[in-house]
Amino acid sequence: MYVAVKGGERAIANAHAWLAEERRGDPAEPLLSVAQIREQMALAVNRVMAEGSLYDPDLAALAIRQARGDLIEAVFLIRAYRTTLPRLGSSVPVDTGAMAVDRRVSATFKDLPGGQVLGPTFDYTHRLLDFAEAAAMDPAPLGTPGPARVPHVTAILDRDGLIEPVAPDDTPAPDLTREPLELPASRALRLQALARGDEGFLLSLAYSTQRGYGRTHAFVGELRIGRVPVEMEIPELGFAIQIGEIELSECETVNQFKGSRTEPAQFTRGYGLVLGQSERKAIAVSLVDRALRWQELGEDDSGAPAQDAEFVLSHCDNIQATGFLEHIKLPHYVDFQAELELVRRLRQEANEAAS
Amino acid sequence: MTALTGGFADPAIQSAQGFRVLMQAMARPGTIHDLALAVPPAPLGRAAGTVALLLADPTTPLHLAQGHDAIRDWLAFHAGCPLVGPDRAALALGRWDDLLPLDRFAIGLPDYPDRSATLIVALDRLEAQGARLTGPGIRDQVSLSLPDIAPFRANRALFPMGLDFILTCGDRIACLPRSTVVEDA
Amino acid sequence: MDPRRKMPAKAPPPNERRDWLSLMARSAPDRLARVLPDLPDHDLLRAPETGNVMVQGRVSATGAPFNIAEMTVTRCSVVLSCGTVGHGHVQGRSRSHARRAAVIDALMQTGAAATLTPQLRAMEAEAQAATTERAAKAAATRVEFFTLQRGEDT
Q1: Where does this protein have coiled-coil stretches (chain B) (predicted)?
Q2: B57: which chain A residues are within 8 Å (Cβ-Cβ)?
């Protein structure tokens, strides 16, 4: 039952005014500009873009400021905004082989063609807070530009037939933003859901597979971060043009596989591709992707959470999760009144039975 | 050049205005409404062209019965909808005779009756006389000139699955959703 | 505007047009504004419109396509008083940027190309220089392995 009530308008207006004041903080401190957030909090911006599922660094930076740094609230703002945009079309699938790489490492091959490129990584830092305030960095010494195309490492294993082949496939991609999730979900649909999933949730799930809950024996075959052009066919032109450039993190794991009832012993793959520089998430997605593939590879269901597509896909979206979780703080006066009456009646009945 | 003109001058406002008319027409089956916001190339009527722009976008595959290059280019620019065969179409656009037989179009599934086609039909005549329409959205009954009776009766029998029709003639539209019962006058 | 006006007789080679459209799509609004600060007379065929484009990737880079996420794109189509049509698609949400790109696309199909081309080339060279600089920074973080000791028994 629903009961319509009025009131609280003044309280809400005052709450919003105070929120604006708290958001601004001490007015003696200069206001953060959107450009400052975009440039200096770039990884927070990347996370909001990835989970908000919309590539627009300025919007993500604005959302972070408006949300007072609450990244899930910022993701919520981006998701709400994107619903106001008409869909102009779909891009041609991006070619990550043509990525201008900032970072590219492999844990499986030391001497990979093109080399190991560390990029702007936190790895090998000492994780010591720098109280001296990060000093101006020395300009990097000039090296030679990388090759135009950077081959994927797994192609090396593919050449020897030691890894499962990737068959060319042009099945149109299902779209979670247009059709509700249906199970069983294809790998393409799972990868879309994981790409916009919550980083923390996916990190924990991926970690659980490493600790034995659906173990997949993963190595990072290759992790690369860089920029790729995005192309789209324009009907009125009759050809494809670049409509922009985005930053992506891509991870492919190489997983030991002893063979199953249907597949020979070989290496198998897990794959993750997410917006922005976001390698923790790209690795997590590829581990979870691999764990979810148990059925098609003829592996056993060990009952691990990461193997359960329904569990993973239904709970990885932090906006769905926070919406349902936080709604219980909103008025439930009537529901609770009914519960209260039920408890009172049960106690009364129990008392009467006892006396 | 005509392929690039005749779209909505102010898409946000005109789409909302046009959609309101279309919703009203669908909610009151058989009633005739003016709807001529777009100027499509001949032989497509203004009402049919307007409905196409209101409903079609890159995610709604459209079947263009009786292919026509000018209309094809116009739809590509203003709506961006993929053109497909009848079996894959979410929308179909054409003259009544060219849309037949109707069993080529998707009627939805028992679990998802919405996965069915909406047909935008160009007619030479659309007047409030002829077949007797009753059902949801109709107080007593309304009369509407229909090109035929039997196909609409067969469509009604599929309910809750079936096709929905947007009948157009020049600048005017009337709707015939699957829920409407059609009888001879 | 007369909708029956003819297209210019000589269409530019599609690959050149693709290149300048792609360059403008990735450009910063204020940088493109320096190429053509004041727009000549034109009519709108499609008013500037911001929307999203679903970006696709492929499973394991080469397999079946899947949807990664959306990106913001703004588009616009114009016709010059001479009848030449231009289309602009740019990354982001700037309507004036998309409109300017559409006007430049149209002008590039006319005699104005002679003066615009060197400016677009300069813009392209700047973009290329930025890419090269970034690639150089990445190259400076390439790992050189040194063999300290081989574990072979002698």
Answers
A1: none
A2: 86-87
- The pLDDT profile of chain C, 154 residues, written as one tens digit per residue, is 333 333 444 566 678 999 999 999 999 999 999 999 999 999 999 999 999 999 999 999 999 999 999 999 999 999 999 999 999 999 999 999 999 999 999 999 999 999 999 999 999 999 999 999 999 999 999 887 776 766 665 5
Q: Is C128 on the interface with A (CB under 8 A)?
A: no
Interchain pair B76, A235: CB under 8 A: yes
- Rounded to 5°, the CA angle B37-B39-B44 comes to 115
Q: Do A178 and B59 touch (CB under 8 A)?
A: yes
For residue A143, give Cα distances in angstroms to A8, A100, A130, A140, C126.
63, 15, 28, 9, 19
The verdict on B10 touching A (C-beta cutoff 8 Å) is: no
E strand map for B10-104? 33-34, 62-64, 91-95
Cα–Cα dist C68/A194, whole Å: 9
**Cα dihedral value A217, A222, A225, A227, nearest 10:** -130
CATH number of the domain bearing residue B90 = 3.40.50.11310
Alpha helix segments (H runs only) across C27-94: 29-35
Establish if C148 touches chain A: CB-CB under 8 angstroms: no
* Residue C59 φ then ψ, to 5°: -60, 130
Which amino acid, B128?
A
Query: Between chains, do B76 and A90 touch, taking CB under 8 Å as contact?
Result: no
Report the DSSP beta bridge partners of residue B64. B93
Maximum distance among all Cα pairs of chain A, rounded to whole angstroms: 92
Beta strands in A181-335 (DSSP E): 218-234, 239-257, 266-275
pTM, two decimals, is 0.85
Residues from chain C that touch A86, judged by Cβ atoms under 8 A, are 49, 51-52
User: Which residues 6+ apart lie within 8 Å of B31 measured at CB?
Assistant: B24, B25, B142, B174
How far is residue A284 from each of residues A220, A252, A310, measured CA to CA in Å? 11, 10, 18
Q: Which of A89, A90, A236 sits opposite B77 (nearest CB)?
A: A236
Please count the structural domains in chain B. Answer: 1
User: What is the Cα–Cα distance from C46 to A262, expressed in whole angstroms?
Assistant: 55
Chains linked to B by 3 or more Cβ pairs within 8 Å: A, C
* CB within 8 Å of A58: residues ≥ 6 apart: A34, A35, A38, C92, C93
Please report, to the nearest 10 degrees, the dihedral formed by the alpha carbons of residues A24, A27, A30, A31 taken in order: 20
- Which residue reads 């201008």 in tokens? A100
Give the structural domain span for B60: 2-183
